[in-house]
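Dear colleague,

Thank you for sharing your sequence with our group. We've completed the structure prediction you requested, and as agreed, I am returning the results in plain text so they can be pasted directly into your records. Please verify that the sequence below matches your submission; if there's any discrepancy, let me know and we will rerun it promptly.
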Amino acid sequence: MMKSDQLEILISRFSKWADSASEFVAALLSDDVDQKEMISDRLEIFTHRFAKWTGSASGFVAALLSILVLFVAGLIYGFSQDWERGLSIYIGVITFLMVFLIQRGQNKELSILQVKLNELIAVTKHADNRLINVEDLTEKEISAVQEIHHKIGEEDS
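Please find the predicted structure tokens below.
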């Protein structure tokens, strides 16, 4: 296959990807609530499955294999500057995406924990119901609540 044919194939594939990406961005920016919810639901499912996979043994094996492939490529290319540049880009992209994936997981777990705590506060007879939705307070307000509970703890001792 000639270089011009390869270039045309590459341009065609990139064009299809760019069209898909622009449709995705247009859907996010549109006023169509149903379409936004559908995209949000799909992203939720994808990120949940991907986070579950990355935390599994097969995710670890895939990461290990990618390291081995990069090492072999380094041997082939003599650990050149181009290889180092490619490695840096690969590591940067993976790290960037994983940070967002980890943050998403932590946000979801924190929300779940908060709902459970709110339920416990709501059903406890002598609990201070003002603590429900305490996560909406500012840091200064939270510090004031902590001081109050610290004083209560000292009185009980």
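Summary note from our side: The two ends are 82 Å apart (CA to CA).

Kind regards,
the structure core
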